[in-house]
Amino acid sequence: MPVVPKVTLPGGLEICRVLNGMWQVSGKHGAVDRAKAVEAMQAYVDAGLTTFDMADIYGPAEEIFGQFNSKLKSSGDAAPAVQSLTKYVPQPGPMDRKVVEKAIQLSMTRMQVDSLDCVQFHWWDYSDKRYLEALGHLFDMQQEGLIRELSLTNFDTQRLEEISNRGIRISSNQVQYSVIDQRPAVKMEQFCLANDIQLLTYGTLAGGLLTERYLGKAEPNSKAELYTASLSSYKEMIDTWGGWSLFQDLLATLEAVARRHNCPMACVATRYVLDRPAVGGVIVGCRLGVANAGQHIGDSLHSCSPDLKLTAEDLAAIKAVTQRSRDLMVWIGDCGDEYRS
């Protein structure tokens, strides 16, 4: 069994560089059997993929993790440690200590833990400055031992700098990053490298679109073809980036690189982002209780293997396609701007 590489966040939490994403149990990717989802998590842990990413708005994700973690602990002292990163995603409104503490306590109850490994804070509207108030309370709770790592989700570079300048130590920022969406490389990477902030990335496989399954295929547009929230969301990103024809050129290039390395295309797409400066880890979605985990686990392990090394030739071939795309910083804005008007 390959050893899964780890990264240590500033607060000391060691996590896998490939994280198991739990957005897929939110209900937007098909009906989820909770019992089967809990059971399916064991295969990831057995493979050494022990880090799970979830949120308070991902349907039953926190409860599923709590049931699994409780079951794992009851199995004996030899049970491997798992790491749980959750998100606090409030609607803009009053952010006094009681409001924030109530939300954090609810996550702890659902996850059946006495403290949270990592809270990744998301805020919808920058014009409402109460995100700074909320982060102040989260920082206080971190000092009190309720939170180990205080992180962000989908914050742009300007706000990341603003928060850091207030003395709030940010461990990581979760942003979209892929061969298609390379906005973090424009401004955010440099700031993160200078301030010891890790990027945890999602969308790296574009919901499954960056795989052999879509190579040479007609453009999907119907709900039947774009049958999950991920596929629908990332198809819109591809449309903005350059369209289906250019995307097919990218898939053909990735497939050629994958052939040279004797691996699936998903491994190349994941490795490409793992090798980027400031990227601590890549979040790969797990359809727990919905689909067979076997191939996903194998691809995740292969993508972070030291044997997979993208060459200068590989990177040049990919760049030859991506440089023909639109500038997403111009069309969308910095990281996370797609979630704000």
How would you sum up this structure, described in words?
This is NADP-dependent oxidoreductase domain-containing protein. Pfam families: Aldo_ket_red. It comes from Monopterus albus (Swamp eel). Residues 19-321 form the NADP-dependent oxidoreductase domain. This protein has 341 residues and is an alpha/beta fold. The protein has a domain at 6-208 and 276-308: TIM Barrel (Alpha-Beta Barrel). It has twelve helices and ten strands. It has helices at 34-46, 61-74, 97-111, 130-143, 157-165, 188-194, 229-241, 244-261, 265-274, 294-303, 312-322, 328-331; strands at 6-8, 14-16, 18-21, 51-53, 83-88, 116-121, 147-153, 172-176, 198-202, 279-285. The strands form two sheets. Strands 3-4-5-6-7-8-9-10 form an eight-stranded parallel beta barrel, surrounded by five helices. Strands 1-2 form a two-stranded antiparallel ribbon. Helix 1 (34-46) crosses helix 2 (61-74), helix 8 (244-261) packs across helix 9 and helix 9 (265-274) crosses helix 10. The radius of gyration is 19 Å and the shape is globular. The mean pLDDT is 94.
